[in-house]
Amino acid sequence: MKNLLFLFTTLLIVWTSQAQNDSVNYKHSLGLSAGISTGAGFSYRYWPKKIGFQVTGIPVFSSYHFFSSSGVSLLAKIRDFNQIRLFGYLGTNMDYRRYNFGVYGEQPDYRTYTFNSALGVGFRFNFLKYFDLNLQTGYGVRYNTFVKLYHTYLSGEVSVYYHF
């Protein structure tokens, strides 16, 4: 599957490596993102020139559970092709979870923070004139406060944006 994705991406770059198009030169984007190191939820991007940033987050809660994902990423353009941008990114995300389980009038409280950071590359594919599909992969490190454990991982991110 990874080889197929790599082949598909390479073919897209080769086929579309023509003159630069204005469809990759917009500044603002709003969308949905799901990533280990960039965060999950609603996302905003500001990318005026070569360097940009992305902010992503969402709260999810119920009577017994609260979850939030908050991510910030730094983006750096590597090369623009027709309808495609190759870029590098550095992403940091904090996931917070809190559970409240009431047993016989007591309120046991369980809380955990997970910090994820990754460095990698991504492709931004422009489609339907005002939309982007972003695929990113990188290498990162994760720390969980509940188990007090560090480990490294391969990061994956996907997002869809409306740009203006």
Walk me through this protein's architecture:
It is a single chain. The chain has one helix spanning 2-15; strands at 28-35, 39-46, 51-61, 65-81, 84-100, 109-127, 131-144, 149-163. It has 164 residues and is mainly β. A hairpin with a 3-residue loop joins strand 3 (51-61) and strand 4. The longest helix is centred in the N-terminal third of the chain and has 14 residues, at 2-15. The radius of gyration is 18 Å and the shape is elongated.
Please give the structural blueprint.
Layout: H1 2-15, E1 28-35, E2 39-46, E3 51-61, E4 65-81, E5 84-100, E6 109-127, E7 131-144, E8 149-163
Antiparallel strand pairs: 1-2, 1-8, 2-3, 3-4, 4-5, 5-6, 6-7, 7-8
Q: Tell me the series of helices and strands, N- to C-terminal.
A: HEEEEEEEE
Please count the helical segments.
Answer: 1
Q: What shape does the CA trace take?
A: elongated
Strand content: over 45%
Which ranges are low-confidence, i.e. pLDDT below 50, for 5 or more consecutive residues? 11-22
- End-to-end C-alpha gap: 33 Å
Rounded to the nearest angstrom, the radius of gyration is 18 Å
E-strand count: 8
Structural class estimated from helices and strands: mainly beta
Structural key phrases:
single chain, 164 residues, mainly beta, 8-stranded antiparallel β-barrel, 1 helix, elongated
Give a quick summary of the entry.
With 164 residues, the protein is mainly β. The chain contains one helix and eight strands.
